[in-house]
Amino acid sequence: MDDREEKSLFRIGEVSRLTATKAFVLRYWETEFPMLEPVKSPSGHRLYRREDIETVFEIKRLLYEEGFTIAGARKHFEERGQELGTDSGSRAAADNSGAVRSAAHAPASRREPPTRQQRKFLLDLHEELLAVLTLLERE
């Protein structure tokens, strides 16, 4: 339908708008959370994958909604990685399990994590809602 459906990499400004998180906060979180590691373009720009955006939402939820400290949130991710039989430092293992980047709104023990299709739908919906909000703000 649209080129955005095929988009798999997002620049830091786009991620900042999508997640309502300042770019400097995203850069800081990269230093504190090893699982948040966007790829770098040849020109040095950060390029976030959809999985990175899901991680940002999860970090934000833990810090702002659940009241975790940064150290506590990092430990939470490490424990989740161990529960799932992954090495917390291994991005490939975490990405393959899909569970480290689980649903951002409920503990995994209460409900199944969303499918890849559901996560994609929610990210696309969020992107569209931000576009509508931007249009409304211009009027």
In DSSP terms (H or I, runs of 4 or more residues), the helix count works out at: 7
**Under the CATH scheme, which architecture would be assigned?**
Orthogonal Bundle
* Residue runs with pLDDT of under 50 for 5 or more positions: 86-109
Describe the sheet with the most strands. 3 strands, antiparallel
CATH fold-level label: Multidrug-efflux Transporter Regulator, Chain: A, Domain 2
Run of helices and strands: HEHHEEHHHH
| Percentage of residues in helical conformation | 55-70%
Strand share of the residues?
Answer: 5-15%
Judged by helices, strands and strand pairing, the structural class is mainly alpha
Mean pLDDT: 76
Query: Radius of gyration in whole Å, from Cα?
Result: 15 Å
Oligomer: single chain
CATH class assignment = Mainly Alpha
